[in-house]
Design brief:
heterodimer, A: about 110 residues, alpha+beta, about 20% strand, disordered N terminus, B: about 325 residues, mainly alpha, two-stranded antiparallel ribbon
């Protein structure tokens, strides 16, 4: 979901401050495709404010009944992990095999617990 | 709509992109990057990437986006003149899709560190190109059907492999585009079928005339022959491009030649012949002079298309400013 959360947003000021160039701010769009499922990131768009972002998200991302609910959030409000630290963050988990149920060998008669 | 970006970049840009990497550190990073590409990994926006890769993608994705947006103009020409309410609703939906495709693609390009306004500016000042096909006029209603069948058909051939592009935000945008594009091609073919099977003699002649005018420009959409497409090789290696221009063009000819028979039109190429040995159609020589003329700004509608885009942008300025002013005032009210 971090397609647009990179340094590119750096020139942008605090909430609701437009870009220096007068560009409409960037928003990330999340759509729930049907009741019971998570909202899923599906893209981004520019809009002047939140109501417009919702309206445009509807027009751009749900033209064929792709959703039942939309979230929008200013891209510059998203805090993302740093890909350069990906290894330090995520790789150690590979050593922790005991976190998985398959680590534990049980007698066949109870193995389906 | 496909972009001919690979083949239409300026010589200076092409030379600049080929500059060698500088430091040993860069070299090591580039090696790791190449290894990821070779392993079939997707590259995400925040991952390190060589400058050449980034620039190539900005160029290709933005040209693709421009093509979608300019592509609305030839078809938009017929919205008010569609023959029935049903066809008008279909055409409106299709043109709205093209706007959406443009937006998905601009958003993908923006992840590479360029702003939307920079991209628009490049289009409006003529620095950026868009697909040559949209510089041809839509003279009759049959042109709308033929654009769906041939132009969108060629676009689909080009775009399906782009769903596996190594740059993930582009690939994701393409998945969305391709899901919607099939309707475009089918509605075009179906509207031509109605004209051919239930139409008058004059309507059938109108379809044949439209096919005659759009056939060769459609073949040009795949870009110059592989031998004259020097930037393709690097793009293939980087997984930005998956299938060569000529291979895609052949695939398109093979698919379309059979569809033309169902439709009952002839394709305007006396050399079009089934080759039993190759299990493919042979076809005649493409007029590449015409292609380059159109790419370089001298097609039938280049000036008109660009002028229409610039006018829309300039006349919309007050709306963009007013929306921002409104947002600012609302924010102040909320803060108070």
């Amino acid at each position: 979901m971090s397609d647009t959360t990179k340094a590119e947003g750096g020139g942008r000021g605090a909430t609701n401050a437009p870009t220096a160039a007068g560009e409409w701010p960037l928003w990330e769009v999340f759509v729930r495709s049907k009741a019971g499922l998570d909202h899923k990131h599906c893209g981004s768009l520019h809009a002047a404010d939140a109501p417009m972002a919702i309206q445009m998200a509807r027009d751009v991302y749900t033209r064929r009944q792709e959703g039942t609910s939309i979230w929008v959030v200013r891209s510059d409000q998203i805090v993302a992990s740093d890909p350069a630290e990906k290894d330090a963050y995520f790789d150690p988990m590979a050593d922790k095999v005991y976190r998985h149920p398959t680590f534990y060998v049980l007698p066949k008669s109870v193995d389906h617990m | 709509m496909y972009t001919q970006a690979m083949d239409t970049m300026s010589k200076t840009d092409a030379a600049e992109l080929k500059k060698p990497v500088r430091s040993a550190e860069d070299l090591a990073r580039e090696e790791r990057f190449e290894a990821r590409i070779d392993a079939g990994d997707f590259i995400e926006a925040k991952d390190w990437m060589p400058e050449h890769y980034r620039k190539t993608l900005v160029r290709q994705i933005s040209q693709h986006a421009h093509s979608e947006v300019v592509g609305m103009l030839p078809e938009g020409n017929w919205i008010t003149r569609a023959p029935t309410l049903k066809r008008k609703a279909i055409l409106l939906a299709k043109v709205q899709d093209e706007a959406g495709h443009g937006l998905y693609l601009y958003a993908a390009a923006e992840t590479l560190g360029v702003s939307r306004d920079q991209l628009y500016d490049a289009l409006h000042t003529g620095k950026a190109k868009y697909s040559s096909i949209f510089n041809y006029p839509t003279l009759t209603w049959a042109d709308v059907g033929v654009i769906g069948w041939l132009v969108d058909g060629a676009a689909i051939m080009n775009q399906v492999p782009l769903c596996r592009c190594s740059y993930a935000p582009y690939a994701r945008a393409m998945v969305r585009v391709c899901r919607e594009e099939s309707f475009h091609q089918r509605q075009g073919f179906e509207s031509l079928l109605v004209l051919m099977q239930q139409g008058t003699e004059a309507q059938r002649a109108m379809v044949q005339d439209a096919v005659n005018r759009w056939w060769w420009p459609s073949l040009m959409m795949f870009g110059p022959p592989d031998a004259n497409s020097p930037n393709s090789e690097q793009s293939m290696r980087w997984g930005i491009k998956r299938i060569s221009n000529d291979a895609l063009r052949q695939k398109f000819v093979d698919a379309t030649a059979d569809q033309a028979k169902v439709l009952g039109v002839t394709l305007p190429d006396p050399d079009l012949k089934w080759n039993e040995e190759r299990q493919s159609y042979d076809f005649g020589a493409i007029d590449w002079d015409e292609f380059w003329r159109v790419v370089n700004g001298d097609g039938p509608c280049n000036r008109e298309r660009l002028a229409a885009r610039v006018q829309a942008w300039e006349e919309g300025a007050w709306v963009r400013e007013a929306a921002l002013a409104h947002a600012r005032r609302q924010a102040l009210k909320e803060a108070a």
